[in-house]
Structure formats: C-alpha cells, structure tokens
Amino acid sequence: MRPKISVSNLVLRYAGAAMDANGDALALQNVEFQVGEGEVVALIGPSGCGKSTLLKLVSGLIKPTAGGIEVDGARVERVPRGIGFMFQSDALLPWKTAQQNVAIGGMLAGLPAVRAHDLARSLLEDLGLGQALHKYPSELSGGMRKRVALGRTLAYQPTLFLLDEPFAALDAQTRITVGNRFLRVFEDLRRSMILVTHDIDEAIAMADRVLVMTAASGRIAATFEVGLPRPRDYYGSRFLPRFHELQQEIWDVLRRQLERAA
Amino acid sequence: MMQQRDTALTTTPAAKDAGADQVLPARRRAKLARLADQLIAGIAVLVLWQIAAQIGTNKRWISSPIDVAARAWDMALDGTLQMHTWQTLQEALLGLFLGLLLGTVIGLALGYWRRLSDALDPVIMGLYSLPRVSLAPLFIIWLGIGIAAKVALVVSLVAFVALYNVREGLKSIDGELVDAFRSMNASRAAMLRYVIAPSLVPWLLTATRICIGMALIGAVVGEMIGASRGLGWYVSHATNVYDITGSITALFILGILAMILNALLGLFEARVLSWRKDTRIAQI
After folding, report:
1. pLDDT at B279
2. A1-82+203-262 CATH, one of 3.20.20.240, 3.40.50.300, 3.30.70.120, 3.40.718.10
3. How far apart are the CA of B256 and the nearest CA of chain A, in angstroms?
4. Looking at residue B227, what is its pLDDT?
5. What Å distances lie between residue A189 and A37, A39, A143, A183, CA to CA?
6. pLDDT given for residue B3 in this prediction
7. What CA–CA distance (Å, rounded) separates A218 from B96?
8. Which of B10, B179, B190 is facing A61, going by the closest CB pair?
C-alpha cells in the first residue's frame, strides 16, 4: 500500500543552524521516514533538532534544500490540500468568535458561509463548547481555545494532521482532558498524523510509532513501535507495562542525544 | 466521565451572570467618576484663567474665558463661527481621510514589494524628516488659496504616519496566524481579509488618533499662509490687529474640535476593538 507521507533524503540548510564540515548551516540531514494511511507518528527530540521545521517542510510552508517529500504520492511543491496543521499557540483570530473561527476552517475548505457556520456550531457542541460559540478567544481558557483550534482544523476536513507541540502551553490537568478529547476525535477519524512533541509520555500515549531525532542536524536516531491497544486513555495508558518499557527505551536513546547536544 | 471533566472547563451561565452583575456597574461607576474628574479639571483651568485675567493688568494679552465666550456668541449669531469652523473642519477631515488612505495603500504596497520598499526607504525617510509645514507656501503656489492646498498639506503630514503604522503593523502580525492560514491554503484575498486587515485595525486607529491633531495643524497653517476664511485665517487676521480675544477664541474652538473628534474616535474604537479583553494601559 502507498504510504500517506514519504520523506526521502531530506536536507535543509539555512543560516543560523549548526555548521557542518563544509561550513554550511545544516538544519536537517538525510531524514527518511514514512507515515502509513491512518498511522499516527510522534516525532520527539532535543529542542532545536529541527522537528518543528520538519513539519513545516511536510506541509509545504518551507522548501527543502534537497530530497523530497511526497504526500499521497505527489511531490510537495506548495501547500497541498487537506493538511490540518495545529500550532503550539492556538493561532485563533482574536477578533472572531469561537464559532466564526471554526467556520473559517470550513469556508477555506470551500463550504458556503451558512453551512460552515452550521458545521462550526455542531463541531463546537461535540467538543463541549456549546456555551462558548459567541465568545472571543480572550474570554476562553487555554484548554477551551485549544479545542476551538481543533474545531477549526476539523472544519477544514483534512486528510492529514500535523500537530506541533499542541499541548505545550496547557497546564498538566488541562493537558489530560484536552489530550483525551483529541484522542477520541482522532481515533474516530483514523487519519494519518505527525505529532511533534518533547514529552515522551505524550508521544507514547498518542502515537502508533515514535521517531527519536538526533540532537544537531536532525536525523532519525531510532524508531519505536508503540503497539498499545486503542482506544487509549491519555493518562490511563501510562499504567500499562508496555508503556513503561517504551518510556525506558525511548529515554535511553533521547538521553544519549541530549548528552551529545550538551 | 469525559463529559464530567469537561464541564469544569466551561463557565456555567449562572456563574457568568453573577460575575457580570458585579462587574458592569463598577465599571460604569468608574467611568462616571472619571468624566466628573475631567469636567472639574476643565472648569478649574477656566477659573484659574479668569482669575489670572482679573488680578493682573495682562488681560489685554491673555484675554479671559468670559471675553472669549462673548466673542464666540457674537460670531455664532452672525454665522462667521460656523463658516470658519466648517471650512477648517472640511479641510482637516478630507485631508485626514485621504492621507490615511494614501499612507495605508503605500504601506501595503511596500509590504508586498519588498525590493521596492528597500529601494524607496531612504527617499521616504528623507521626505518624512522634512518639516512639511514649510511646504505650505509651495502648496499654495501650486494649488491656489482654496481648499485643495490645505488638503494637500494635511495629506503630506498624515500619510507618513499611516504608512509607518501600517509598516509596523505588518511586522507585528502573528507569524503563527499567517502560517495557520497558509497551511489551510488561504488565497491572498482571504489572508488579507481574515488576517492582515484586522491585524492592522488597531494600528490604523492609533495613526488616526495621532493624525487628528496633525490634520488640524495642517489646515490651520495652510489657512494662516494663504486663505480667505477658516479658523487659521481668523487667528492670523486677529493677531495682526492685536485682537487677542479673537485669536484665542479661534484657538479655543480648535481645541474643542480636537476633543470632539478624539471622543468620537474613542467611541468608534471601543466598538471595533470590543474583542479585546483588557484595554487598560500598563501602570508605570
């Protein structure tokens, strides 16, 4: 079967990154991996390893120096249709209400305004935000804003989700409730996803496969099959024996990378 | 179980209403108190002015609030007050509008064509640093003593403020917002409509606030140099014949005009920026 995403020999150089032997700034070096249809892959690595950059490359927001990325078998030249990109900040329009923010996702996918607003209402209700339809982002808590952002992404009806540390700005408890909310949604949809995170537990709880990146000039250092049954619980999964094994194995690899970086 | 956890995150209607009941009157009371303070301060200044005029022999040089009020009343009765005020207001508002428009369009264009922007940067900075008020005689030579020369002078003052505010506004646009919309394949028009234009609104409102005073300056200076009517013409005409009361009356009306325009802008701002939760200025 054709993979959803195929990354091969990916190289990115740019000013400001660590220098290689030729004196070139190398952000990413010979990255290779694939994401299957419906598969959730977590990317984890020391900060500055280029994992967020990798997401931007996959989404076509920036162009690689060499190598290629294919989504659905087509080389990514510009931003492809059907990418659901979620950022560390919720990236909501502060001057639009929750419902308007979500509706814009639908309109950008080509829905007429009225239908997009109806869709926004039902999505927000499903996400437990029926009371917040007409509130502005500044009137919502961090967890609520994150769910509105998820609503907007869902309204855009993506076939591929790219999540860049989506829960990093949330406190520990909100992270669990929002994380569970995301798990329910994504396990229903069964869409392909790349999740960038610095949190080992989060990577294991969400992903089918965890890729650990090297410290400088990011490459893939190791790959782990998670193999935990679904549906999962964002918090409850961590009491399974397999979870502990993975935590240990991933940490061993990551620690070596962190030591190398230091 | 999920449902239960989540209700804790959403505010219940009852809790919201209880909060609103307490917050709103307090806010309104603070607003009324501030208005009262402003009224008292204004009256205090007028009273001090009147006392200073009364006790000194300098009434001839500084006039007095009562004389100014009497003059304004006379001028209102024979219609000259309205005529001069309307003339100046027309010049200022037309220039303000055209200047903001021109500055915004150029600012957006320079934001779009970066190379043009880099090339023109020194020229624009040079023009901006020029004391543009000194262009007034030139505008009058080029455009005559009618309204056009004054509008042009106002435009030359206002456009740069709009241009630099738009430029700063473009720089300060949240990069993740732009990336979020790019990742959803937003067209250039959609990006302008949803992200860029609304991001610039607070910057344009700030530019407008700064430019209200500038627009009045431009109109008045233009009139002082070459005109047959307007508050600026009145000031220079009165000063030439040592009619201090006449001069101060016209200046007083200009001040009131500026206050009214600022208050109107404040009301507009409160409406347009209602999505902002907290608009208080940081306490230093």
Report:
1. 56
2. 3.40.50.300
3. 33
4. 86
5. 12, 11, 21, 10
6. 42
7. 54
8. B179
**Contact yes or no for B184 and A83 at CB 8 A:** yes
CA distance B232 to B96: 17
Mean pLDDT of A231-239: 92
Picking from B7, B11, B190, the nearest residue to A108 by CB comes out as B190
- The predicted pLDDT at position A168 comes to 86
Instruction: Supply A144's token pair.
Output: 């609520």
Round to the nearest angstrom and report the end-to-end CA distance of chain B.
Answer: 47
Q: pLDDT value at position B282?
A: 66
Name the minimum distance, in Å, from the CA of A132 to any CA of chain B: 8
Tell me the chain A residues in contact with residue B169 when contact means C-beta distances shorter than 8 Å: none
Are the CB atoms for A105 and A132 separated by under 8 Å? no
Question: B177 to chain A: which residues are within 8 Å by CB?
Answer: 91, 93
pLDDT score, position B13: 45
pLDDT tens for each residue of B165-224: 999 999 999 989 999 999 999 999 999 999 999 999 999 999 999 999 999 999 999 999
Q: How far B215 CA lies from chain A's nearest CA (Å)?
A: 29
DSSP state of B192: I
Q: Which of B57, B92, B80 minimizes the C-alpha distance to B218? A: B92
A105: which chain B residues are within 8 Å (Cβ-Cβ)? Answer: 184
- In the predicted model, residues of chain B with pLDDT beneath 70 are 1-24, 57-58, 277-284
**Which residues from B are below 8 Å from A109, CB to CB?**
184
| d(C-alpha A132, C-alpha A121), whole Å | 10
State the average pLDDT over residues A205-223: 89
* Listed residue (A91, A115, A109) closest to A154, CA to CA: A109
Each domain of chain A, given as residue ranges in start order, spans: 1-82+203-262
